[in-house]
Design goal:
The protein contains 18 helices and no strands. It has 393 residues and is mainly alpha-helical. The protein is globular, with a radius of gyration of 21 Å.
Length: 393
């Protein structure tokens, strides 16, 4: 018999975790100047050392992990929506495909100000896997998640090279595309910038995701989030506390050897780096991602230091994740790019992180204020209305 869901508890921890992921994404994007690698060239040595340390900390903690949390929660949200419809005797699947079509519009808006860095279009493409598996058993969903997370495409290429040493990975020309993106970004034309981003930039982003193993990992994370929703692991109870402690311990034990193996593999030939190296890079990032998720859930639900109250703004920030994510890109473009303030040449990693923290504080305060008056964020409201257009829930 399905356990009744404590709605407030579920929404609070999930929204807070989503807000945490969104904050981490913002910090990584600021370090990267939103995929615009222009930095100061004459910083004093002490600042260079500080910048290097700042970059290492942000990348170690969040790069490749914040997006993974975001992806996992995308799958979890699909569970909530589909389960709500199932209780009414309805199939959410086709309405979800309709919802994905509208996500393309938000992906285009975000990409317009984020050269070759949008992830929403990847979510649209990979989201189809949730539609296809929506009626599968829990066991089938979990096994499918594991298969995707094993990175089968990369293993195929590696095994193919063992059988045929002449085998090569497909050259998707991602480097050339990013070079072209950098060129039109530097010319300072807003029109060229926006048009280039929603055409060439989106193509470069998707093909980079292929090279980086993101398609398979994203599908696995979607299904893992869907499975977690079915099993109600985000509910606060003793059984789930034990589950998250186990996840934390296993992930923590796994991370170090996976990271070490990844570093060793990266000393091999190029095709091994791009195949098996990518696999172990994805695995060590997944292990660290699970450490972050388990730690956050345990602290939020069970900490004696009022963690949930002290980080309450993350919950509001997470409830407006789509609005905040898209506006991050617009703000970042205005701050760093030539058509805007063009502060990139003056902002090293440390200053960029401080800017990111300031943007986070302002966005989280705005989110809290907005949600004190409205039920949803502006883009969330539009997406919700479009999802259910022509049909009542």
């Amino acid at each position: 018999m399905e356990q009744l869901v404590n709605k407030n508890s579920r929404i609070e921890v999930v929204d807070a975790l989503r807000g945490f992921a969104l904050m981490a994404i913002l910090l990584v994007h600021n370090v990267e100047h939103f995929i615009f690698p222009v930095y100061p060239t004459d910083s004093p040595n002490w600042l260079k050392l500080l910048d290097q340390g700042t970059m290492n900390v942000v990348y170690t903690l969040f790069a490749g992990k914040a997006y993974a949390i975001f992806a996992l929660l995308f799958g979890f949200t699909f569970y909530i929506q589909s389960n709500n419809q199932k209780k009414q005797g309805k199939d959410f699947g086709y309405r979800f495909l309709w919802r994905l079509l509208f996500l393309v519009l938000f992906a285009t808006l975000n990409a317009a100000f984020f050269p070759a860095g949008d992830v929403l279009l990847l979510f649209v493409v990979v989201g189809i896997v949730l539609f296809l598996t929506r009626n599968w058993s829990d066991k089938a969903v979990f096994i499918s998640a594991v298969v995707f997370l094993l990175q089968p495409v990369e293993w195929y290429h590696y095994i193919a090279t063992l059988i045929n040493p002449a085998h090569q990975l497909p050259d998707l020309k991602v480097g050339e595309m990013y070079a072209a993106v950098a060129d039109y970004t530097k010319n300072g034309s807003l029109r060229d910038f926006i048009w280039g981003n929603i055409t060439l930039g989106q193509k470069a982003s998707l093909l980079w995701a292929v090279n980086a193993g993101r398609f398979s990992q994203t599908a696995g994370l979607f299904l893992l989030g869907y499975y977690i929703g079915r099993k109600q692991f985000f509910i606060s109870n003793e059984k789930n506390a034990i589950f998250w402690v186990k996840v934390l311990i296993i992930s923590a034990i796994s991370f170090a050897p996976l990271y070490t193996l990844k570093e060793l593999i990266m000393n091999n030939n190029t095709i091994t780096q791009q195949s098996v190296g990518t696999v172990f890079d994805m695995w060590q990032k997944l292990a660290f991602t699970l450490i972050l998720i388990a730690s956050f859930v345990l602290l939020y639900h069970y900490s004696k230091f009022r963690f949930s109250k002290n980080f309450n703004n993350l919950r509001f920030y997470g409830k407006m994740s789509l609005t905040s994510y898209v506006t991050q890109s617009i703000i970042g473009a205005v701050i760093y790019f030539p058509f805007g303030l063009y502060l990139a040449p003056y902002c090293g990693y440390t200053i960029s992180v401080l800017i990111g923290i300031l943007v986070f504080v302002l966005q989280s305060k705005f989110s809290r204020g907005w949600l004190s008056i409205h039920k949803q964020g502006p883009l969330e409201y539009i997406w919700h209305k479009w999802t259910w257009i022509g049909k009542s829930k």
